[in-house]
Design a protein that fits this description.
Strand content: 25-35%
Number of strands: 5
Largest sheet: 5 strands, mixed
Structural class: alpha/beta
Number of helices: 4
Helix content: 25-40%
Strand order of the largest sheet: 1-2-3-4-5
Order of helices and strands: EEHEHEHEH
Oligomer: single chain
Length: 122
């Protein structure tokens, strides 16, 4: 098991949250708590950088949904960047690729003029 590390930085489009390690039953509460402290403004985009995510179980998926709901409540967008293949597979199985904008990397996710690989419908 790899300890969860969460770091945030600002980008032109809004906050970027880098998630490293295991996002699972034992650690998902840390991400949920962190996300709820973020101040988002209408029109911003919260980017969750998953490039260094090693494991994501159902509790971790729930924490990602909490992030989406937090952004939506602030009238902000949310995007996932650099999603590992195993996590992307789970998101697709659950139909969540229709809920999250998914980008190949953080650079792309923080550009306003590039469409995501997958975009929420409707």
């Amino acid at each position: 098991m790899s300890k969860l590390k969460i770091a945030a930085r600002d980008a032109a489009t809004g906050p970027v949250v880098e998630i490293t390690g295991d996002l699972d039953y034992d650690t998902a509460h840390e991400l949920r708590a962190f996300i709820t402290t973020l101040v988002l403004h209408p029109g911003q985009r919260l980017v969750l950088d998953l490039a260094h995510l090693e494991l994501c179980d159902s509790s971790g998926i729930g924490a990602l949904i909490v992030a989406r709901n937090h952004a939506q409540a602030a009238q902000a967008g949310v995007a996932l960047a650099a999603v590992p293949g195993n996590t992307l597979r789970v998101l697709r199985i659950l139909g969540l690729e229709q809920v999250f904008a998914i980008h190949p990397d953080t650079r792309t996710a923080t550009r306003g003029d590039v469409p995501p690989l997958m975009r929420r419908s409707g």
